[in-house]
Structure formats: structure tokens, C-alpha cells
Specification:
Blueprint lengths: L2 E9 L7 E5 L7 E9 L6 E9 L2 E2 L5 E9 L2 E10 L2 E7 L6 E9 L8 E10 L6 E9 L7 E6 L10 E8 L1
Antiparallel strand pairs: 1-13, 2-12, 3-9, 3-13, 4-5, 4-8, 4-12, 6-7, 6-11, 9-10, 10-11
């Protein structure tokens, strides 16, 4: 039977936070999971992105490759990006009442120094009319070295709104 073991978490309770880092990834677990709820930029129409850390340092290189499908109302959208400076998991996020982003990420090979760090994500945007919907995708950071953390950030370094919750878990077999 598998179980989730909470490793770290953060909740935004005051203004001035535009970067959230969850650390503690090591070889203890083969797979890690990140859960986030009520994520919203304080400024309207800003992207929410993810980067990883290696040796505690945020990786700002252009080695992030990802692909995802958007499911909005009755339409679909496909995005594939190679050589980005981050994984963009939400485009043009709003800051209106109830416009929140939520999701689950799975992290694979993050502590393996001989592999790329892989990510899959399942997300949903709430109360965003007319584009309420979900996004499913994944990607890799094309650098074969161990990663030890995950960083959420926003476009133009705008703050996250209060109430955003982030948690990192190890998947114990």
C-alpha cells in the first residue's frame, strides 16, 4: 500500500511573496507529489511558472521542455515548448474573486544525478468565465543532474495573493 509523506509546505498569508520554494527532495522516495490550491497572482493576467532547484539554487537556464493539452469549455488547445526558462503551468491567470488555480504535480527522477528531472501535471482553473477548464501535461529539465526542490513563481515577479497553499509529499511504497 502506498502512502504520502508530507515533506514541506507553505501558505501565503501576507503580501510580498512572489516565489515559493518547496525543498527536501532527495533519494528517499522515487516519486514526489506537489499539491497546490487557491494559487492566484495579485495582479491580473499573469503567468504562473515552475522552476527547479539544484543544490538549493534556482535553475534559470533555458532547458525546460514541456507539452500540455488545455480543456476549455468545448475546445482543446495544444502547447509544446522546447528550450524555455521555466514550465509555464498557467497562462494569463486572473485575480478576480474565485479565479484560482489548483493542481497536482508528480516529480520523477529528481534526485537521480544521471537522469533528467521529469514532471507531469494535472491542473484546473476555477471560476474563469468563459475559459474555466483544465490542463494536463508534462515535461523535463534537460540537464542530467540531481534536483532538490521546486519553485513556484509569477510573471514579472508579481506577488501571489493571500491564501495560496503549496505542499510537497514523498510517495512511500
Amino acid at each position: 500500500m502506498s502512502a504520502l509523506v508530507k515533506i514541506s509546505s507553505d501558505t501565503i498569508t501576507s503580501s510580498g511573496t512572489h516565489t515559493v520554494t518547496l525543498s527536501g527532495i532527495d533519494s528517499t522516495y522515487n516519486t514526489y507529489m506537489v499539491k497546490f490550491n487557491n494559487v492566484q497572482p495579485a495582479t491580473d493576467n499573469k503567468n504562473v511558472m515552475i522552476r527547479l532547484t539544484k543544490g538549493g539554487s534556482i535553475q534559470t537556464d533555458s532547458k525546460y521542455d514541456y507539452v500540455h493539452e488545455d480543456l476549455k469549455n468545448a475546445t482543446f488547445g495544444h502547447t509544446n515548448t522546447k528550450g524555455a526558462a521555466s514550465f509555464t503551468i498557467f497562462d494569463s491567470s486572473g485575480n478576480g474573486t474565485g479565479e484560482t488555480n489548483n493542481g497536482i504535480l508528480y516529480l520523477f527522477h529528481w534526485a537521480d544525478a544521471n537522469e533528467y528531472s521529469w514532471i507531469t501535471y494535472d491542473t484546473v482553473r476555477m471560476n474563469l468565465t468563459p475559459d474555466m477548464g483544465g490542463r494536463m501535461g508534462g515535461g523535463a529539465h534537460e540537464v542530467a543532474s540531481a534536483s532538490d526542490g521546486i519553485v513556484f513563481t509569477t510573471e514579472s515577479s508579481v506577488d501571489f495573493a493571500n491564501g495560496a497553499e503549496f505542499a510537497l509529499y514523498g510517495l512511500k511504497n
